[in-house]
Write a structure and sequence with these properties.
The chain is of the alpha/beta class. It contains 19 helices and 24 strands.
């Protein structure tokens, strides 16, 4: 037995050393490095999991020997691997494996997808789905009556695609004990019929927790399968790093998959701010971890979403003049200020969801207070989404060093219907990408998957063209906020690396950095930007290994 174990350990060591010493030369490419001192190159050499050389086809020849694997790029465009600044990774994997209501373009299609799924899994909670009522023939929010007759014995709670409200059937409401007498929790809303007072089935933001509390938690096996599905999807799309909204069960799954050698994407974790004390007790600070899994960042919510009319504004909604939106309960009860200040003192990074202009302004005020009162450090505050920002507040992002962590696909999605929510004037400062860059704000990109598609090329297309999904804005929705392809690539690579304190190890193609690279089917730097949405990844290199090739 001891001899067998010794042989096995020697084999593992030999394979490890071979992988570490393996050399691959990529030649004959158009390589956009995102390195300002050497923007373009023809060839790249990687050894082990690091980039060793970037330069011309002639220069790389001196590094090539009989042991070098040579890959001819055939003039294809190579970029650094995409870094997605905001995902719900295991939730996205579960979405791939579960019900998909996003394709429903009518109430009939919505009902059919749900009915078919309920027949297939009659004893299972139906969750997720991510429907969009703005695509239906009637733009009104659905009610439980729409689905009760097809889900009599199956509890249902399916979310709108923004994740800030969901539809429960009567069975689920009963299990959660929600009746006409149930009051809405702070920071949430139980929508009720104005005549009868009965719950309609729509729950917004914190009210959704009433249902979540009775939904059985996913098993370890289900989370594992979801993560594997998400990794498979990511590699096809050229995503080599993600900033994940993480919880403890997810972290355990990431670590298990890493131990099995199957982790093909780097994970930068962001924990709920309510759990910050756990990180403090573990002496975790921003950037704790290794090149595959890092910790030390927190996620909080200042408000809801525009689609759910819960984003927090200074002025009332045009479509619903009874509301300004909803600040989260942790703002109302003072927890946001207390937790943020204490977490920052302990060198934990703060990244806060803020969509409405008032939510963004509130967070800028709070960040400024923390900067003035807490000891100085490289804190890199982030505002997630930063969708509706008054122009006078944009310069405050730059002055305070706050990163605008945005998801550009939302722009071409929301742009179909956003003006009816908040009117023509506020629309002028919606998704102000160009204004952020012009003001010197560090802008980084992601998808918010599962809320939006995981494909970064769709995000680049959205940022560069701003052509809404209904194709009614061929020159771009708020076209003055369009940005260049080069800037969009930087937002998806080096800027996202910076947002995770990792710009010195990844995000550009230069010697010494991690060998995370991708190759595209077409040159997005020269083609008509309208065609970017049709471009795909033909090769993904992760940690020095080709993990996907088409």
């Amino acid at each position: 037995m001891k001899i067998a174990l010794l042989i096995l350990s020697q084999l593992i060591l030999t394979n490890y050393l071979f992988a570490q010493n393996m050399k691959t030369a990529f030649i004959n490419g158009k390589i956009y490095t995102v390195n300002p001192s050497q923007p373009y190159a023809e060839a790249v050499l990687i050894e082990g999991n690091k980039i060793q050389f970037v330069g011309s086809n002639d220069e790389i020849k001196k590094f090539i020997d009989n042991s070098t694997n040579v890959v001819d790029l055939k003039n294809k465009l190579m970029l650094p691997g995409f870094i997605d600044n905001h995902v719900h990774f295991i939730g996205g994997g579960a979405y791939l494996l579960g019900i998909d209501l996003r394709p429903a373009n009518s109430t009939d299609e919505f009902r059919k997808i749900l009915s078919d799924y309920a027949k297939k899994y009659p004893a299972k909670w139906i969750t997720g789905g991510y429907w969009d009522h703005e695509k239906w023939e009637k733009k009104d929010l659905p009610t439980k009556e729409l689905i009760d007759d097809i889900t009599l014995t199956t509890p249902v709670f399916v979310e709108r695609l923004d994740g800030h409200m969901g539809l429960a059937n009567s069975y689920a409401l009963k299990l959660a004990g929600i009746t006409k007498a149930t009051e809405s929790p702070e920071g949430g809303l139980i929508v009720k019929d104005p005549v009868t007072g009965e719950p309609t089935g729509i729950l917004k933001d914190n009210a959704m927790t009433l249902i979540y509390n009775v939904i059985p938690a996913a098993t370890d096996e289900e989370n594992y399968d979801a993560c594997i599905a998400a990794l498979e999807e990511a590699k096809k799309l050229g995503i080599t790093s993600v900033h994940d909204i993480t919880y403890n069960d997810a972290l355990n799954v990431f670590r298990k998959i890493k131990s099995e050698g199957k982790l093909t994407c780097r994970i930068y974790t962001r924990w709920p701010i309510s759990d910050y004390q756990f990180l403090v007790d573990q002496k975790i600070t921003a950037g704790t971890g290794d090149e595959l899994i890092k910790m030390g960042s927190l996620k909080a919510f200042a408000d809801g979403s525009l689609g759910s009319s819960t984003a927090w504004f200074f002025e009332k909604y045009n479509q619903d003049t009874t509301t300004y939106g909803l600040p989260m309960d942790i703002i109302s009860d003072g927890s946001m200020e207390k937790w943020c200040a204490d977490a920052d003192k302990n060198h934990l990074q703060l990244s806060v969801h803020a969509i409405g202009d008032r939510a963004n302004s509130y967070m800028l005020d709070l960040f400024e207070k923390i900067i003035n009162e807490n000891p100085k450090w490289d804190r890199r505050f982030r505002i997630e989404h930063a969708q509706h920002v008054r122009f006078e507040d944009i310069k405050r992002f730059a002055e305070l060093g706050v990163i605008a962590s945005v998801q550009p696909y939302h722009c071409i999605d929301d742009g179909v219907w956003a003006e009816k929510r908040i009117g023509a004037e506020r629309i002028k400062y919606t998704y102000p990408f160009k204004s952020f860059l012009d003001a010197g704000v560090k802008l980084c990109f992601g998808t918010d998957w599962y809320v939006a598609p995981l494909n970064p090329l769709l995000g680049i297309y959205a940022a560069v063209t701003r052509r809404t999904l209904d194709e009614k804005n061929p020159d771009g929705w708020i076209p003055e906020q369009k940005i260049s392809v080069e800037d969009a690539i930087k937002c998806y690579t080096i800027n996202s690396a910076y947002a995770a304190f990792e710009e010195n190890i990844k995000g550009s193609i230069e010697p010494g950095k991690l060998a995370d690279l991708i190759v595209l089917s077409e040159d997005i730097l020269t083609i008509n930007p309208v065609r970017i949405k049709d471009v795909h990844v033909t090769m993904t290199v992760f940690d020095g290994r080709i993990i996907f090739e088409q």
